[in-house]
Amino acid sequence: MADQDENSNAVVQSLTRHINCLGEDNRNTRKNALISIRKEVFDRKAPLSSRELESVSIEVLKPLLKSFSDPVEKCRELSIDIVSCFLKSVPTVESKLSYVVPILVQRLGQQEIVEPSEEIRSLLVCLLHFIVEKAGKTIGVYVDDCVQILQRTLVDPFPETPSVRKAVTRVVGGWLLDLPDRYSYHHKLIPLLLTSLSDEQTDIREMADELWHDIGLKYERENEDDLKDKLDFVSPQPGHYPPNCNFNIQNFVLNSNTWSVLILAAVCLSIATCLRFCLD
């Protein structure tokens, strides 16, 4: 263990000059510094252990996250790649969430998306997906931030960016299938997936349709007793339904539950507004 600490400390010391160069005005200096950081940490002949990488990440994560806002796209791409490598290599990401998630919100979750590059937006969405999967239940406190990012990127204001919408659709569908305590977030996630069902891109619509179908089947398996009566007495599909319409009772119940929550929230908000008005 002492040898591991000594090794990680030596790596951190070797990175100090490169980290300092991330604040230089010259774009090539910053880019070369990021290339050197990646090489010295992840391209070593004797790879660092996960424990050593954890120690190194504690020292370099903040300056690397600051480079997510670098004016040069290549520098942003390199910094995202390095942070992704760290997060994939360390034992857990829980201690990193308070640093990483706010940066993702800053780049993608504002009223107007700050990140101008389609490729970088797609990389950030993929990074978010990975973080949520690895964090598991510990992501709970940050779910609202994650949903905010997905809401903004799904309605991407940049016209040439179907790849970002596709990545978001894949993430939302994955969460609705596998996110711990996902039922608590149905009312936030389901409307996002339903938006993709009417996307102008055929491949995105088809992906959303397949995910929606799988989500309904999984919901049926997990709620078989509650759905039994509904499944036994399902009416034939109405004749006015469009061809190839992927309707099933499971998704109907999911929709009903979701919109019930949304409508109740709207009613409560209206009542609260009226009460404040009356009290004033």
Automatic annotation (TrEMBL):
GO cellular component: cytoplasm
Assigned keywords, A-Z: Membrane, Transmembrane, Transmembrane helix
Entry coiled-coil feature ranges: none
Residue stretches spanning the membrane: 259-279
Biological process according to GO: cilium movement; inner dynein arm assembly; outer dynein arm assembly
Matching InterPro entries: ARM-like (IPR011989), ARM-type_fold (IPR016024), DAAF5 (IPR052623), TPR_DAAF5 (IPR057978)
Gene Ontology molecular function: any one: dynein intermediate chain binding
Sequence ranges assigned to domain Dynein axonemal assembly factor 5 TPR repeats in this UniProt record: 21-160
Highest taxon in the source lineage: Eukaryota
Record-given protein name: Dynein, axonemal, assembly factor 5
Species per Swiss-Prot/TrEMBL record: Plakobranchus ocellatus
